[in-house]
Amino acid sequence: MLGFAALYPTYGLIWKWNKRKENEMDMKADKKKLGLKEKYKLLTRDLGWEPTHHSIDTVFPYVKYEGIKVHDWGKWEDPFRLTMDAYWKYQAEKERKYYAIIDAHAQNNGHLHITDARYLSALKIFLQAISPGEYAAGKGFARLGREFPGVGTRVACQMQAIDEIRHAQTQIHAMSNYNKYYNGFHAFAEARDRMWYCSLPRSFFDDAMSAGPFEFMIAIGFSFEYVLTNLLFVPFMSGAAYNGDMSTVTFGFSAQSDEARHMTLGLECIKFMLEQDPDNLPIVQRWIDKWFWRGFRILGVVGTMMDYMLPKRVMSWREAFEIYGAGNGGALFNDLARYGIRLPLEWNDAVKALDHMTHQLNLGLYQWSFGTAFHTGIPSEEDMAWLTKKYPTTFDKYYRPRWEHIKKLKAAGKPFVNTGLAKLCQVCQIPTPYTEPDDPNTLCLRETEYKGEIYHFCSDGCQRIFNDEPEKYIQAALPMPQLFQAPLNGDIGVWMDWVGLRNGTDNGDYDGSEDQRNFAAWRATATSNQ
Amino acid sequence: MSTVFIALQANEETRPIIDAIVRDNPAAVVNREPAMVKIDAPGRLTIRRQTVEEELGRAFDLQELQVNLITISGHVDEDEDSFSLYWNS
What is the pLDDT of residues A363-407, one digit of tens each? Predict the structure, then answer.
């Protein structure tokens, strides 16, 4: 053997190397598998290093100007302890489940299995107004994945960036199956930028993306994820299941399975800021006040979808808010009280609005439905009976009489249309449809004069947000002023082309629409051989 | 005491997980809603890997929860053996 190894030294080396490798593998097999905490440490925290060629401030230039003081980024921890390897594994599994159902939906005439085509209005709003928000959140978190100095935080933000892009894609993909058959789905990208009701969520995301990294985290991680997405994805998606819409349930629950992680990231970030330095408290509280109210304004749209657009309903918007808004949000604020955090300033205004908001917004959508890329309609007797039951103190007193009046006008061949252009709130951009918190018969309007111009607001909350940062909000792009600028010059027909709205097809009353006729005709052919 | 909750998709994979949660958390209330199951508990809810494995009849990694999780309320604490939700107040 000695002679052999001497003659062929290379072989001897390989033999020795193989032997060592085997020993190492034996040792590895003996060693205990890495624990979750240990694995998390190795695959996140230990990926960071101290820069030597540049100062830490030039590497992370945006992390100080908001005034948040951080002494130890190592204190930030993702409680899910999700590492990239596990992330890819479970996300891939979610995608496989999602596409299996989307394929089944397309192969089994899923577009005919919904309770009624009027349900699709909710999906059209979702695609035009909400899905682009997912994409915007993806861009924002990609930025945070670069801008935060903490390694654990950066990894979690990068995962969330990928999640948000996935949500936008899966939502667009799921709804493309409806776009093959129904109107109003085709121009969602134009609607996102140009449609008046889409400017409500668009301005929310633009506001967040043009803020600093910590404020973005409160805006999306806290307000959007913790306060909003539970209401958006949980009762609404459960409602989609009730209405036979398997594709929406699937994208909704698939997205929401990521939101649990996102909410936790938002909550951890708030706790982290509050624990790092007592000076952070007033800044964090101001952001909570601002983004709670901005989030609540978006909820008006979600609530209206729940109360008026689902033919079969799981729960009312009010009931959903009691569970996921007041119950869940209340628990969160109780918990944060030990840091000195109190309820958001406009919490009481929100509570007072619960019995009015969806009714007022839906009346607004109906009267301006010549300009919506979805259908609205007068609630049926059965729907109104349900609304009376769910809103016993307000519906019969304030809103049923208006619908009865609108019904009479329609029967007389003069449907109620409001061609006047609404005053827009400079902050949330909604056309001021809501009433005073303590008086449901008076429209709530506020104004502030700034540098010789008058700015309008829908509420005390939005006015306060403007007064805190007027230089930011005077730059807002508002849909109504755009209508009067070139190339539209106030022409509604030109405006419709510009927003991708096909007059007489995509807009107006569901009753008498092409969607209604097609759904009835196709359903008939699906259940008979004629 | 504030309520914590977890909501899971209603399917074959989560049925044994829900049974395990009920076994380990006597105060938990199970709400069966369309397509989902929401479990509420006062103050704290814990999912133990060992109990899930007994119900499921196979090895289970708690991170598999990610696939069928819809939403949670409360702070999270997770390691290989248990997944807990809790409020501090």
Answer: 999 999 999 999 999 999 999 999 999 999 999 999 999 999 999
Query: Cα(A126)–Cα(A132) distance, rounded to whole angstroms?
Result: 9
Helix (H) or strand (E) holding B73: strand B69-73
* Interface predicted TM-score (ipTM): 0.88
A→B contacts (Cβ < 8 Å), by residue, are 35-37, 79-82, 86, 90, 93-94, 97, 229-230, 233-234, 237-239, 241-242, 249, 253, 256-257, 259-261, 263-264, 267, 314, 327-328, 330-332, 334-335, 337-338
User: How many Cα atoms are found within 13 Å in the side-chain-facing hemisphere of A529?
Assistant: 0
Tens of pLDDT, residue by residue over B29-46, are 999 988 889 999 999 999
* B5 bridge partner residues: B40, B73
Using CA atoms, how far residue A58 sits from A63, A85, A106, A361, in Å, is: 10, 31, 51, 47
Of A238, A256, A257, Cβ closest to residue B67:
A257
The answer to whether the beta carbons of residues A317 and A358 sit under 8 Å apart is: yes
Fold of B3-86: Phenol Hydroxylase P2 Protein (3.90.56)
Six-digit token string for A100: 């299996």
Q: Count Cβ–Cβ pairs < 8 Å, chain A vs chain B.
A: 98
Distance from CA of A460 to the nearest CA of B (A): 30
What pLDDT was estimated at residue A2? 46
Q: Would you list the domain boundaries of chain B?
A: 3-86
DSSP for A246-277? HHHHHHHHHHHHHHHHHHHHHHHHHHHHHHH-
Higher pLDDT, A316 or A527: A316
Alpha carbon distances (Å) from A448 to A78, A182, A286, A463, A470: 42, 43, 20, 7, 10
> DSSP class of residue A211?
S
Query: Which residue in this structure is represented by tokens 């007193």?
Result: A397
Cβ of A263 within 8 Å of Cβ of B72? The answer is yes
> Whole-prediction pTM value?
0.90
